[in-house]
Amino acid sequence: MQEAPLSSNRFRAGLAVKLAIAVVASFTAFLALFSFLSLREHRRHSEELVLQSADRISDLIQRSTRYQMLHNDREALYEVIAAIGKEPGIRLVRIFNEEGRISFSTDTWEVNRVVDKRAEACYGCHAQAAPLERLDRPDRYRIFQSGERRVLGIIRPIENQPACSNAACHAHPAGRRILGVIDVNLWLDGVDRQLAEYRNHLVFYTGLAAVLASLVGVGFIVVVVHRPVKDLIAGTHKVAGGDLSHRLSVHSRDELGELADSFNRMTADLERAREEITAWARTLEERVQKKTRELERAQTSLVASEKMASLGKLAAVVAHEVNNPLFGILTYARLVLKALEQNQVDPARRAELVDQLGVIERESRRCGEIVRNLLTFARQSPPRKEPQDLNTLVERALTLLHHQLELQEVGLEKNLAADLPLCRCDGHQIQQAILALLMNAAEAMRQGGTLRVATERDEAAGVRIRIRDTGPGIPPEVLPHIFEPFFTTKEDQHRTGLGLTVARNIIEQHGGNLAVESVAGQGAEFVIALPTDVPVGVSAGGNGGRT
Amino acid sequence: MNASVAGPSPRGRILIVDDELVVRDSLGRWFAGEAYEVGLAASGREALAAVQEKHYDVALLDINAPGIDGMEVQ
Question: Are A473 and A521 in contact (CB under 8 A)?
Fold first, then answer.
């Protein structure tokens, strides 16, 4: 984020500065060209005016001297010329005769000198060997430097006229065309002063105009280009930074305004799209949560129905188990009753009756035992940790399954350790877990087999209970899933597959571990490991996963 | 396991088949008291052996017995 504004600043300055330089340079160049041309034109015009006046002066001299020349009155002629030469602005008036000798000059030291025909004043006519006899005005004047000052000189040839050749003095023969030349020199000081003043003014106003035009141009660029572009770039950076609610505030009706409008529309579309996506994500999340809640409710009700189902199954087993002793009790009771009714109480008969009553007592105890175990299983009391002998819990669970095993012709091998330490646990829950594993083993051996139940002491883990069947075993691909809720491979459709899950939960809630090993075709072995001294808190916490 | 209780003049022979000792015994005593000649068998296999050895008028079979169940013994 440090690089971009820097480079954009450089870009903005570049664009505006380029435009400004172009505007200022073109204004300055055009104005300079204009003033140069204007100055040149003005100079030409001023010099033309001076030239006209010089021409008029030489014309005036010629006309003024006509009379004196005709009378060959040289003194009067020179008088007039000297008077005119004293006029301000006139530097010099002189007359050359045909040989180039200065016959008169207002500058007296020149008089009687001969000028070189190749001198600048003579060059107009004497450039060729034969001198010209007529000259147009532009060729008759020349501007030259006299010291620091500029001088405009104009020559006027004095032509021979019949009056001259016929005059009494007859100084000029009729064959001559040019009698002499009047040369008038005028100072150009005034013109130059005026020109300098004009030039100064022109430079000042041109400079002022250039500065003002440049200021207006640069201001226009700043307002029309620089600021909108700056806003545009700042806005795009904001939007690119994720602020989709930002809108560009460029309202000009040009291309920049159009660009800003398009950008704003694009940003609005993006914002709308993002809101839609956010809304969708929210809806999706809500739906997932709703479905999760529904699934949780379904799982809870399934767990409840599984409990009911296993209770019902247990009730059937128990009913069958209780039915046999009750039948025996009933029959013996009726035998005893019949003997007493027939009054056959001789000593031999009496021993038989005592024997039969003994059977009644024994079988009644057996019924009581079965009922007590059923209660142990069914009672949903809160977990109550007490020192328990795991061998007793195993025996009780086996009692409940005794008949089932006999029916399936499953042999039972018990190998319970005599020195098993007591284990602090909830006896009802642990017995329920053992029973679930025993029932699972029994169901794996519908075609008969051997159930091996062993308890052993483990210095590291505390106490182990091994429950091993000789069923078909658990295939390797199924093994990782057997503790998952609702997983079952049993063909019995009434099972929901929660038995092993409940067993593992109970064991883990006691800080223990339930593991399984199985080789296909050689049965399976479930191993419950329980710590003998469960720390306070782990059990109550619920999910102590000590593995 | 072929305990038979014979009365003075047997009214007939009954074979009682049940895996539960208390059921078997109590029924046996009951029918013996009613002057029947009673045969006892703990399983289907024993019942078949008993039938081959002696003639029985009636056999009482526990239908839900381990091994060969009552229906099969018929």
Answer: yes
